[in-house]
Amino acid sequence: FELAYSWKNAGGTQVSTSATFTPTVEGEYTVTVSTVNATEGAINRVASATVTYEQIAAPTHVAVSGDMSVLVGGSATLTASATNASSYEWFTCNEDGTGAVSAGTTGATITPSTAAAGTTYYKVAATNTCGTTESAVYAFTVVSTKTISVAFQNKAGVAIDGPTVTYEGTEYPAGNITVPESGEIQLTANA
Question: Is residue 117 a contact partner of residue 75, using CB atoms and an 8 Å limit?
């Protein structure tokens, strides 16, 4: 006995008689396996199965989200996302994306170092069985800090307790507040 194979598309047209078949068009395919007795000319159907072939593209829409600017010693997590990605690899690179070196992290998230002030450029490669797609370059900046002292006085110049200040949405009592070392800061007095 020999085995005979018949692959048919959803329209019933035979597309292959091989044991293996690689479709090029999405859709349903049915394979029927039969035994053939060459001596007697008898054909007996043994099994039949239907499979669906769907083409999957390389990942698209690769993006990075997260806080791209933090103070020295702060914490940050950057998260990659993409359509059709099964894995990720992070790279540090130049601002224009050249000179990419693996950041040693695979997975959708990376926790950048915030130990020293400066800017690190990241990009991420999203991969699946059909290929790899890289994101744009993202700048992650660690801002150096300074501490300012806030005190309140009445019109006579005497220190008073009680008022607070608000900096970037957080209320602080009078005293020391950590702020970025450069750039403009805005404090709001709360009576």
Answer: no
Full 3-state SS string of the chain: CEEEEEEEECCCCEEECCCCCCCCCCEEEEEEEEEEECCCCEEEEEEEEEEEECCCCCCEEEEEECCCEEECCCCCCEEEEEECCCEEEEEEECCCCCCCEEEEEECCEECCCCCCCEEEEEEEEEEECCEEEECCCEEEEEECEEEEEECEECCCCCEECCCEEEECCEEEECEEEEEECCCCCCCEEEC
Instruction: Report the predicted TM-score, pTM, of the whole model to 2 decimal places.
Output: 0.60
**Rounded Cα gap, residues 7 and 16, in angstroms:** 5
Give 96-112 pLDDT, tens digit per residue: 999 999 999 999 999 99
